[in-house]
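Re: the 163-residue chain
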Amino acid sequence: MTKSNIVNDAFTELGLSGYVYNLQPEDLQTALTMLESLVARLDVAGIELNWPFAASLNDVAGNVTVDLPFWAHSGLVALLAIDLSAGFGKTVAASTSLKAKLGYETMVSVSAIPNPIAKNHMVGLGSGNKPWRMWRVFVMPDLSRRVTVSSESIQPDIGAKIE
C-alpha cells in the first residue's frame, strides 16, 4: 500500500473519485500533504503507525510504500476524508464521522504508549502500605544500586601455576 492509495481511498470516502470527479495533480499533492500532517499529529499524540515521514512537507511523495497496520487503515482514511471535506466543499456523511471516531479510538487503545509512573516510598496507605508494615513497602526495589559480577571475574585462571 502506498500513500497515494490512502489518499484515493479518502477521496472515495468523500465521493470524489471515479468518473464523477477528475482529480488534478494539485489536489493529490494537497491531500498527500494533509495526510502527512495528519499522521504527524497522531504521532505527537502517542499513536505509533510506523509511518515513513518525508523530510519536509514539500517533499511528500505518493509512491512511498507504507507499512500501515490493518486495524488503522479505515480510521486513517476516514480522518483524512474529514480533513479534506472542507477544502472540496463536501459535507461528511454520518458513517464517515462514525468510522473516524471508532478508528481514532482504536488507534489510541492499541498503540498509545502510557507514561511510566515513578513509584517512591510515599505510597498511600490504601495500597497495602500500613503503618505497622513499613519495613516491607510494596514498591519495587531500586535495581540500579545492585552490584553485578561478570562471569569473567569468577572464572579461575586455568593456566596459572600452583606452587
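Helices lie at 3-14, 25-44, 73-85, 94-111, 151-154.
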